[in-house]
Write a structure and sequence with these properties.
Structural class: alpha+beta
Distance between the termini: 32 Å
Number of helices: 6
Order of helices and strands: HEHHHEEEHH
Number of strands: 4
Oligomer: single chain
Strand content: 5-15%
Mean pLDDT: 85
Strand order of the largest sheet: 1-2-3-4
Largest sheet: 4 strands, antiparallel
Shape: globular
Low-confidence stretches: 1-22
Length: about 170
């Protein structure tokens, strides 16, 4: 799922032994039309916990979108100014997990492992599974476009689309 994916994209497609014998129609038929979600496993929960700890260590308050946004913007600027200072992969991982955890806490979505035509990664699904959010795609795409200042508005909008009922 995206350029910063942690999962093997080929795991989704049942590939033939000789790739030359497979045409595009066969490959697209093997991909899911709609995202498929499965419950988290221990390794997935550990990855989320590590991301939350990395965000907290950076001073991020996961319940505060302004905090997530300002810390991400700062990390982006530091990584851009000195490519050796921070790994883009680690920044994307940390802030994708922070955004995902914020959504899990404040909207009617929960963590799952999601597979779609782009691959498999951590995502958030609503109870009816009519929408899927893949935080790594949100952060990775904006990283590549060099965007800052987007987190509070975008994530608040996503929370508002499916607010948690108390």
């Amino acid at each position: 799922m995206g350029l910063f994916s942690r999962k093997d994209k080929e795991a989704v497609v049942d590939t033939a032994s000789d790739a030359a014998d497979v045409d595009d129609d066969d490959l697209s038929a093997a991909l899911p039309e709609r995202p498929i979600a499965r419950p988290l496993e221990d390794v997935d929960r550990a990855r989320i916990a590590a991301g939350i700890e990395a965000a907290k260590a950076a001073g991020v308050d996961i319940d505060d979108l302004a905090s997530i946004g300002s810390h991400y913007d700062d990390a982006y600027r530091r990584a851009s100014a000195d490519p050796g200072a921070l790994s883009p992969d680690s920044v994307v991982e940390t802030y994708a997990i922070a955004i995902g955890e914020h959504l899990a806490r404040h909207s009617a979505r929960e963590w799952a492992v999601v597979t779609d035509v782009f691959g498999t990664d951590l995502g958030l699904v609503a109870a009816r599974a009519d929408t899927v959010i893949v935080p790594h795609n949100l952060v990775g795409a904006r990283w590549m476009r060099r965007e800052t200042g987007w987190i509070p508005g975008v994530v608040a909008h996503l929370v508002g689309l499916r607010p948690r009922r108390t």
